[in-house]
Amino acid sequence: MRNTLSKEFAQSQNAPESTLAKMTPQDDPEAFLKTFERMARHYNWPEETWSPRLASLLCGEAQLAYAGLNDSHAMSYSQVKEAILHCYRSTSDIHRQQFRSLKLHPGESPRFAALKLKDLAIQWLKPIEAEKMKLLDKIVLEQFVTILPKETQVQLHIDNDLLQDSIPGHMTH
Questions:
Q1: 134 and 70 in one domain?
Q2: Residue limits of the SCAN box domain (predicted)?
Q3: Positions in the chain short of pLDDT 50
């Protein structure tokens, strides 16, 4: 019995990372890291082992942030976590800037521009709930209308004041 308990304890100390799911591009990096930290504490992993254990679970932007660190920073979990979170904040800001600066170029399909706006907005906002999707559609529509030629806006009979009033927190630019 004693041998069985000590074997179970030893296994919990060295629980494989396979008990954790690998990060996906859809994961929220803060939630992923919080889950990783809870699991690491649960299995009593020494904190100096957290960074190498985490590295094998990363993908995409998080993996690039880790790979961009020098060797000593890559061994520090707090440095790795800071780099990953900074990378995601920067990426989100880049998508916001691209969304706000998109222009409809001569000869470009308005439908293509609308799809590009929606794609950038999804990447920027990462909406999850139904209300967020409704807000996303309103924001995309507002931005789409602003990039259309004036004569097209008139043809569509879109009342910009009504559109702007329907978007919570909207500020005229």
A1: no
A2: 96-157
A3: 1-13, 127-129, 167-173
